[in-house]
Amino acid sequence: MIIDGHAHLYAEDNYAEQLLREYDNLGIDMVCVSGLGDTFALADNNDVEKAFTAHPGRIVGFAFFRLGHDKPSLVKRFHARGFKGIKVTCPTNHYDADEFLPVYAKAEELHMPVLFHMGIVTTAPGRRDDVTSRWMRPMHLDRLAHLFPDLPLIGAHMGVPWYEEMAELPRFHKNVYIDITGKLTGWRAHLKAKDIKRLLWYPGAIEHLIFGTDVHYTEAKQALDQDVKLYRTLRLKKKVRDGIFAGTMARLLGLDIT
């Protein structure tokens, strides 16, 4: 089984249906989807809700929570609407700022994993957004992992360019996970098996990886092929591969995939 743990709903007609048709061809069973709205020229939370309502068992909704704009009580409302996780990016302060702690506390209470954009961020062309990537450094998850040990914290993109910082966190925090998503022509195109071995050098490290694409559905095959090749080169045991591609994310979301 394969679960895409990091994908987005594009603001295109029938995008969810086209994505699922492609995923049928690729053997991807489920996909965790969020919509980041106009900032990234994507669909929004309402569109995501329509998508997972129309396709139960295939699409899992992650609600885009705007740290610094939305009230913590919105987390409970998202949960009531059927969202299974929270997606955050472009905060108005660093991720572990005191003002955001009630958001994570509510997510922990409701068993909603939080997917963090990590590292360098780019918004839609032509925009002038007041954002800074340094507020999204991986080390900001350190405090959160201490304060909310039962809340799964997923750091995207191996924290690019703070790879070592992101890779070390699961060594000390069992509730921190990593995905290696990114543009096919970006940093992941240069990621080699030797780099993964160097970064995730400690026992059990590789088991904190979660598969995701974070690309348009037309590029999903290339993303999947890249990761399959990577893990084959690493000669991972089947149990570990199964965890990366589905088992770990299913466990974090409380999904029964047996």
What characteristics describe this protein?
single chain; 258 residues; alpha/beta; TIM Barrel; 12% strand
Structure, explained:
This protein has helices at 15-26, 45-54, 73-81, 101-109, 140-147, 163-172, 193-199, 220-233, 238-253, and strands at residues 3-8, 30-34, 59-64, 85-88, 114-116, 153-155, 176-178. Strand 2 (30-34), helix 2 (45-54) and strand 3 (59-64) form a beta-alpha-beta unit. It has a single domain, classed as Metal-dependent hydrolases (TIM Barrel, Alpha-Beta Barrel), CATH 3.20.20.140. The chain is built from nine helices and seven strands. The chain starts with a strand and ends in a 5-residue tail after the last helix. A seven-stranded parallel β-sheet has the order 1-2-3-4-5-6-7, with helices on both faces. Helices cover 37% and strands 12% of the residues. With 258 residues, it is of the alpha/beta class.
In short:
The protein has 258 residues and is of the alpha/beta class. The protein is built from nine helices and seven strands.
CATH superfamily: Metal-dependent hydrolases
Provide the CATH architecture: Alpha-Beta Barrel
Number of domains in the coordinates?
A: 1
SS summary, helix count = 9
Unreliable runs, pLDDT <50, ≥5 residues? none
Major β-sheet profile: 7 strands, parallel
**Which of globular, elongated, flat, extended, rod-shaped describes the shape?**
globular
Strand content: 5-15%
Find the count of extended strands (DSSP E, 2+ residues).
Answer: 7
Report the mean per-residue pLDDT as an integer. Answer: 95
Structural class: alpha/beta
Computed Rg: 17 Å
